[in-house]
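Sample entry (124 residues):
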Amino acid sequence: MAWQYIDSYRAAAKALGIIIEGPVSITLPTGQTVTAELHFPQFGFAKGTLVFDFPASQSHASFRDAMRQVDGYSASYFGLDEGDICQPSDLAEMLSDWQWNGPEDSKPLWLVDVVRSTNLEDEP
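Predicted structure, serialized as tokens:
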């Protein structure tokens, strides 16, 4: 994974005022250790969302099978082309899809706005 891209995620997260960590290593029930490039602890399942650099040598099916073993976490992977960067607006949209799992009184205002505007578009 190009560090430029990971750094752009960090910059977008900082602009949005959210917590981002990484790299984070998790041990699966099989004993295998996997390392996520990024961890969004406030979004997705109870323990947050792990984002992996999808290895070109691994099939999508084997990746999905491994990620099903990551208990309590949501899992995703980068699907990007070299040179891509993460913009705050793109990250906000993605995080809205993952949903907030943190305390309601800490929920970012931009997240409410994104969800609200999406709901308004769905109404007749």
